[in-house]
Amino acid sequence: DDTMEGLNLRIDGKELWSILSGLFNAKNLLAVYGAARLEGFTADEILPLLSIIGGAEGRFQKIRNDKGVTAIVDYAHSPDALENILKAVTESRGDAKQVITVVGAGGNRDPYKRPKMASVAVFYSNQVILTSDNPRNEDAEKIIDDMERKLDPVEKRKVIRIANRKEAIKTACRMAHQGDIILVAGKGHEKYQEIGGVKHPFDDVEIVKEFLINND
Predict the structure, then answer these.
(1) Which residue has the higher pLDDT, 5 or 184?
(2) Cβ–Cβ < 8 Å for 183, 100
(3) What do you get for the CA distance between the two ends of the chain, in Å?
(4) Which of 118, 140, 165, 167 could form a disulfide with 147 if both were Cys (CB 3.0 to 4.6 A apart)?
(5) C-beta of residue 78 within 8 angstroms of C-beta of residue 10
(6) Which pLDDT value is given to residue 38?
């Protein structure tokens, strides 16, 4: 079973519970198990250790509040990576009411991926907030224009534009209700946002905690 709470796997006739979510993490755990078995370790030696493995910082990192809202911070910053993480959310969402995705695209990087990022986000989400990523030396609003360019009128009904990333995350947290999932994509473990060639302190995880937990 794959849920927002974690994975319940059956390996070699034994049950394994992991706090990780997503089919990709199930595959990773099975790969580790298989490698360890080939090295001669027993299932009873391996499974307890697998059960306590946590995720990497900024990779499907889950933050929950006491109102039943789950936020996920992930480094996905390409169309393929965004689609993979949203597929994982879809596989794990269970009875989640809606998925709210906060995503941008980097400045001074491949502009052709921008509309693809927006299209993927809209396809898999109930609500999308387009925002800044690391705009670098480009105008954040212009990057969002590029992202929206190929969305049709129906798709645009799902979209809100908020160039200020902190305000975008705040809005997503305010919009979310019990059972909803928020995905904040693009920066993951990064502790800065690069604007105008200057790196400003910025941490998606801490911003999510500020508005989802501390002010809930």
Answers:
(1) 184
(2) yes
(3) 30
(4) 118
(5) no
(6) 96
Name the residue among 59, 15, 49, 44 with its Cα closest to residue 185: 59
Nearest residue to 170 via CA among 134, 116, 207: 207
Token digits of residue 18: 């992991």
Euclidean distance between CA atoms 49 and 209, whole angstroms: 29
Query: Which residues neighbour 65 within 8 Å (Cβ) at sequence distance 6 or greater?
Result: 212, 213, 216
How far is Cα 74 from Cα 27, in angstroms, rounded to an integer? 18
**Helices 43-50 and 23-38 sit at what angle, rounded to 10 degrees?**
150
**Residue 175 per-residue DSSP state:** H
Residue 98 tokens read as 């809606």
Give the whole-angstrom CA distance, residue 93 versus residue 181.
Answer: 8
Burial of 9 (0-12, 13-18, 19+ CB in 10 A): buried
Q: If residue 33 lies in a helix (H) or strand (E), which one and from where to where?
A: helix 23-38
Task: Note whether 38 and 98 are within 8 A (CB).
Answer: no
pLDDT digits (tens, 9 = 90+) for 195-215: 998 999 999 999 999 999 976
Rg (CA), the chain: 18
